[in-house]
TrEMBL record:
CDD domains: cupin_XRE_C, HTH_XRE. Pfam families: Cupin_2, HTH_3. This is Helix-turn-helix domain-containing protein. Keywords: DNA-binding.
Amino acid sequence: MDEHKETLRVGSAVRRRRRQLELTLAVVAERSGLSVPFLSQIENERARPSRRSLLRVADALRTTDVELLAAADPAKTVDVVRADDDTDLDTSTPEARVRQLARGHHQLHALEFIGDHDEGREFQHRNDELMYVVEGAVEMEAEGRAYRLGRGDTLFLTGGVRHRWRATVPDTRVLVVAVGDHVEAVDDGGH
């Protein structure tokens, strides 16, 4: 039995957006740096774009990967991501890797950061986020205040908090769970 059901089927969303903008595959290929045959395979669901490729396609189509995924997301999904599954692993930087723990486009985003992280990059998300240090240690700066987090520590950020972080120990593993930026946060009156 195949436990992994493919959930990232963005081809139809890419095609609709491209046609909406009245662009040819050649123009999208030129803008994205991807080949026409690869883009055709994506549109026809014969190829699955990596996260990086999807970002490049989205930029070429003047939209976001989140919007493309929203247009393609199935209503119900059950998906298992095994520890040794590196299909969605971003290994563009050898000392830092990012792995998606929930594939597809959902209200919940879960990422595992392994190794070092670009401490100079500042983040600010529209919705809430939780950071959990699985292994190692990190230094976090949020709203001008510094925090040191070790194994088992969590840090919760409400939407809108500016923050950045870096690993302070080799092979640090950090789990980040967030409400998707495409979801409107609702103030429930403190409940």
